[in-house]
Amino acid sequence: MNNGKICVSVCAETADELINQIKRAEELADIIEIRFDCLDESEIKQVWSSPASSKDEICTFRPKEQGGKRRISDKERLNFWNSDDETRWFKFWNTGTETAWADFEIDLYEMNATHNRRNMICSHHDFNGIPENLYEIYN
Prior knowledge:
With about 140 residues, the chain is α/β, with parallel strands linked by helices. The chain contains six helices and five strands, in the order βαβαβααβαβα. A five-stranded parallel sheet has the order 1-2-3-4-5. The N and C termini lie far apart (about 35 Å).
């Protein structure tokens, strides 16, 4: 028996386009990776306030140097993950739903921005190969 899952990554510059991509991805995907780093900054809140997907979600907000689509400062990234407004993400953090995951980079974890969160993926991206200090990064 194959227990594999299909993950479809969606990435768009506008909220409407991203929401449409999420709906299309629901037809095939078990999990949908929502790439918030593709969105224009002014479009992010519109996606948060849209109805949640019926599928599991992985939310990402990567800076360009870690495979993202635009330059994002550390402050922007921290504000994104630690938002206090009434968005789907804030509700997710407080209700502990099992259908959404946060994928943030190890440097944010080291800034103590994301500790004690549920459904957390802490990632490291190295586009040059396997780092010499892989075990150190893992630990």
